[in-house]
Amino acid sequence: MTARVKAGIWVSMALRMGNGNGRYGAVLRKGDPDAGGVLVVLSARAGMCVLNQVSTAEGEPAWMRATGADPVTQETVDAYIVRRVKADPDLWVIEFESPDLLPPFEAKII
Q1: Mean pLDDT within 8-34
Q2: 93: β partners
Q3: How many other CB atoms sit within 10 Å of the CB of residue 33?
Q4: Could you give the angle at the alpha carbon of 86 between the alpha carbons of 99 and 79, nearest 5°?
Q5: What average pLDDT score do residues 23-42 get?
Q6: Cβ-contact 63, 53 below 8 angstroms
Q7: Measured distance CA(79)–CA(59) in Å, rounded
Q8: Are 52 and 110 in contact (CB under 8 A)?
Q9: Which tens digits make up the pLDDT trace of 56-99?
Q10: CA–CA dist 29, 56 (Å, integer)
Q11: Residue 35 DSSP one-character state
């Protein structure tokens, strides 16, 4: 089994990478600093999307476009976050400005 980075440390790293690359980010919701999951909201003029942490069949970390392939509205993003937080109160939510709706960190998107 692969060692997992604590959620709070991962969030700090992602924000630092984004801010360093001009894709400014912010924490919208703090979750459990050790074991919380992470949702990443990407925001552009064309709309928004939410990335959800998942694992591949091989157990490798990956991200899924939880709100679909096409950009969605703020209302759709907010509704998705509310549903997920009800199911997982330890969840972190971070948001980045991202003109191309791609994350500022290395990510396998499935």
Answers
A1: 96
A2: 29, 39
A3: 14
A4: 40
A5: 96
A6: yes
A7: 29
A8: no
A9: 999 888 999 999 999 999 999 999 999 999 999 999 999 999 99
A10: 26
A11: T
Structure pTM?
A: 0.93
For residue 70, with 0-12 CB atoms within 10 Å meaning exposed, 13-18 middle and 19 or more buried, which class applies?
exposed
22: left (phi over 0), alpha (psi -120 to 50) or beta: left
CATH of 7-97 among 3.40.50.300, 2.40.160.20, 3.40.1530.20, 2.40.30.30: 3.40.1530.20
Of residues 17, 11, 60, the one with CA closest to residue 39 = 11
Q: Residues near 107 by Cβ (< 8 Å), separated by ≥ 6?
A: 51, 62, 63
Alpha-carbon span 4 to 75, nearest angstrom: 32
Check if the beta carbon of residue 65 is closer than 8 Å to that of residue 73: no
At 104, the amino acid letter reads: P
Tell me the two tokens of residue 36: 């919380």
